[in-house]
Amino acid sequence: MSSAEIGKTVVDLRQIAGLSAADRRHLGELLDTANGAELLTTIDDDLAARVLKAIPVPAGAGLLNELDAPQAAEILRRLGDSRRDSLLGAMAIDRAQVLRTVLSWPEDSVAAHMQPDVLTLAPTATVGEAVDQIRAHAADRPHDPTGAYVYVVGSDKALLGAVRLRSLVLTAADRPVAELLDAVVTVAPLTDVEEAAMTLIDHKLDELPVVDAEGRLLGVLTEDDAVEIAEEEATEDAERQGGSEPLEVPYLRASPWLLWRKRIVWLLVLFAAEAYTGTVLRAFEEEMEAVVALAFFIPLLIGTGGNTGTQITTTLVRAMGTGQIRFRDVPAIVTKELSTGALIAIAMAAAAMVRAWTLGVGPAVTLTVCLTVAAIVMWASLVSSVLPLVLKKVKVDPAVVSAPMIATIVDGTGLMIYFWIAHLTLPQLAGL
Amino acid sequence: MSSAEIGKTVVDLRQIAGLSAADRRHLGELLDTANGAELLTTIDDDLAARVLKAIPVPAGAGLLNELDAPQAAEILRRLGDSRRDSLLGAMAIDRAQVLRTVLSWPEDSVAAHMQPDVLTLAPTATVGEAVDQIRAHAADRPHDPTGAYVYVVGSDKALLGAVRLRSLVLTAADRPVAELLDAVVTVAPLTDVEEAAMTLIDHKLDELPVVDAEGRLLGVLTEDDAVEIAEEEATEDAERQGGSEPLEVPYLRASPWLLWRKRIVWLLVLFAAEAYTGTVLRAFEEEMEAVVALAFFIPLLIGTGGNTGTQITTTLVRAMGTGQIRFRDVPAIVTKELSTGALIAIAMAAAAMVRAWTLGVGPAVTLTVCLTVAAIVMWASLVSSVLPLVLKKVKVDPAVVSAPMIATIVDGTGLMIYFWIAHLTLPQLAGL
């Protein structure tokens, strides 16, 4: 994926930052426009941007001309202002204008990721005329893929509908395209790009048109781009769920310093939150000195609470990510999770009884441990079924409710439940 | 998504199992083939199978006729043998034969999810003849979508290549299709369906042809189906990462009993594994009695180890799921993670020092806690960077290395590290 063999030269593109000026010029010559553009589409946009930073501007502009507009824009967005302006300056004016339009939209909007240069037809065109126009459009843009649809617009440029390319193939040349018009799902340009991508995927669309407030067609989001965006979003969610910030670059290219920066913040936040377990335990120091066997079960009890909660939040965050559940489902979810939690509590209390008996801690501590594990399972079920949906409601990405966060929340509160139950059940603690 | 409004009747399809026989017949009548098929494509396959189980066989066969072959096969696969055979018996023989072929492949193979009824052309056909054949093919199959490609096969039926539908639109009618031939990426029928879906997505293909050992075309995997398969796989991975078995049905339809079954196995396995923390702590009972302050830090230390490990495994499992890393990368990964771990260990030791100081436990325990947190971070980094790749190597889904599993592994071993370091640094423990 990241090495290019051109002629006899093998270049490891990950080493590109270390090339001498002469080597970079040489690389620019080796990356002729056909091979080079092919290469840029197979590597990720971040690495592609580094290639364009390393080679001379005219060679880079030539390569960008061969890419489709959304990908060229993705790469340009990753470059500094001056390199971006020189590359755009070295391209044909029309093409540069199209790219500047895409680049002018906010990065998280669907418009910043759309294919802007879409063929439109009048509703009065016949199938034969449509085919002629498609041929002319494609001949002008040898490197822009023709989409799965052509779009039909009225005299006010408002989008009327779309005609599938395959419908044109299946229809006689003298019929008007207006007969073939499919209604289309559209989105506004400032729609969040991940939301737009999920709309396209959920509706199994080939393309999603972007229209302005007057209904005019600005461009289309393609299925390939939508799938790539959804994949990236799933990766970011997975990383948040693991308790770190999203890396934003492929793992193998992330340096230890970058990994450190993405991870240390959450580790310290969780450490600070977990630190109060020390305070809780110090408060119950006398209880532990009186019945030291209580300490044996601390990791087991809080671990079970964390595991129970993690199972729930992971399922809920994924169900939210794929649009299966919403805030209005909270009562149904909490009921379902507390019912499940009750069944799990019974099973885990039985397991805890076996374990306490094998450790030989006596009936009073055994009872305490069994009651505690049941109570912690119920508590973890409640917290973890409510928290992700509440966060979503207040516009925080629910994927930040990671396994480590749930474990941290349940650890301290679980310990308080433990010692409170111990006070009720252990005669040794009666006087404390 | 799951309620159907037909005429004046609103049916909550989740309640379908509870309908009376008369209501089911009525539902079968309401679901006329046009509305009904539209409905079946919007609900998930599991619910669609329950609808087909509830309504009379002829109505069900009529609905299945309107769906594309891969989806019809998905739904039939979810029915019992007798209902499946009656539905296939009530369909046109050709169509039933096509579906039986798809159903005969193992469920996890790409062939079980392909579109089997693909138009093929001879290489000598002209563009005009190709368009005529496409029209005839589409006229015979009003409900099967025409694909993005037509395929060209030799006299031995071996696949020679594919012609994009859009190329046919762009080319004069008298040119031979052989001039428009694109080389294609193909897969064998028994290829794992998730692997095939990722191949299609990574190469940004519209369709992926499935060919047998002689190179004959058996069918194609479509982009829509590949995206759906990849989404389902990502959901299963997320659920495994959260420490439970995949649900396999949409969350809101999972009963507490189903949730219990999917979750309790891992909870009990993890409980049994975590149980040895009790043995470890009992073994160090005297140390805890001598220096009870050691117990204050147990949740904090093992929690930090679990968090560090979870960050790493989540990132690695996702990177493996998207094909970014392989077993041969183990040395690079371990080096990277131990370097990152060293940086994290320094920061966390500093945080631990602050915390121990605020709890007022004295310099010796503070030193023990700082050294332990650093050692646990390094240990967690090592375990969690190696484990997912080793599991993948021995053909276990690395997604089972969940946050709870890493936490469990690190908890017990982390406690041993803690008390071992305590022995070295605490004079009170010298004699024990």
Automatic annotation (TrEMBL), chains A, B:
Keywords for the protein's UniProt record, in alphabetical order: CBS domain, Cell membrane, Magnesium, Membrane, Metal-binding, Transmembrane, Transmembrane helix, Transport
Pfam families: CBS, MgtE, MgtE_N
Localization, UniProt: Cell membrane; Membrane
Domain CBS: 180-236
Transmembrane regions listed in the UniProt entry: 264-284, 290-317, 338-358, 364-387, 399-421
Entry membrane topology: Multi-pass membrane protein
Function text: Acts as a magnesium transporter.
Subunit structure: Homodimer.
Family: Belongs to the SLC41A transporter family.
Protein name per Swiss-Prot or TrEMBL: Magnesium transporter MgtE
Lineage summary: Bacteria, Bacillati, Actinomycetota, Actinomycetes, Mycobacteriales
